[in-house]
Amino acid sequence: MNPSIATESLLSEAELYPDSDGKPMSDNTVQHRWIDMLFHNINSVFADRDDVFVAADLMWYAVEGHPRECAAPDVMVVFGRPKGDRGSYRQWREEGIPVTVAFEILSPANSDDEMAKKAIFYEDHEVEEYYVIDPIDNRLDVFRRQGTVFRRQDTIRGFVSPRLGIRFDVSGPQVVVYRPNGEAFRSYLTVESALRRVLVLSRKVRRGQATAEEVAELERLEEQGEG
């Protein structure tokens, strides 16, 4: 028997399938900002659906008894599984449902060999859509499952995710992602700033101190879901 296999058989489940791979969630502030933005905005898009699980930097163990068959997508979306906290996504405990959509945000530390291995893993384990975003060089690579393999998709004219309904635009200086309703994905700080503005305008309206322009601004922000 292979010594490593014998050692694994003596480990507890928590030791065999650790919740962390020991790597940092991100290598720089740009990568972290993108991971955070995708996670929160996709969660918001599917806030009313109890059967869509979204996670960031969560270990995904694909095959029971094979702890090395794992990955930790920067962001992952699973259709058909309930929301809720998990230490890791152990597929055999999730009715065998694999990750539906995987995102990787490139950083200078990612090698071509590393990214090739990630693509092979996602392809082998039935991911339907795989996105690689390079926010620094404004590049987006999209792969969709066709049968048992990935096919690279054309993103020049913008690509709409069949599963998520979100749209990607690479025509400008940086990649922009839009919700199904056409609103651009926003960072937490942008949303918080808008909420603070709503509070200020609401107080002025209640006190009869708001100008016509401020009333119109408040109505616009409330239509965007900030109220």
Write up what this structure looks like.
By secondary structure, the protein is an alpha+beta fold. Helices cover 32% and strands 21% of the residues. The longest helix is centred in the last third of the chain and has 19 residues, at 188-206. The protein has 2 domains: 3-178, Alpha-Beta Complex (tt1808, chain A), CATH 3.90.1570; 188-223, no CATH class. It has a 6-stranded mixed beta sheet. A 3-stranded mixed beta sheet has the order 3-2-5, with no helix packed on it. The protein has a 3-stranded antiparallel beta sheet with strand order 10-11-12, with no helix packed on it. α5 (188-206) crosses α6 (212-223).
Mean pLDDT: 87
> How many whole angstroms does the radius of gyration measure?
21 Å
Q: Name the strands of the widest sheet in spatial order.
A: 1-4-6-7-8-9
CATH topology of the largest domain: tt1808, chain A
CATH superfamily of the largest domain: tt1808, chain A
Intertermini distance: 63 Å
Short description:
With 227 residues, the chain is of the alpha+beta class. It has helices at residues 3-9, 13-16, 29-45, 112-124, 188-206, 212-223, and strands at residues 52-56, 60-61, 70-71, 75-79, 89-90, 101-105, 129-134, 139-146, 149-152, 159-160, 167-169, 176-178.
Descriptive terms for the model:
227 residues, alpha+beta, tt1808, chain A, 2 domains, 6-stranded mixed beta sheet, 3-stranded mixed beta sheet, 6 helices, 32% helix, globular, disordered N terminus
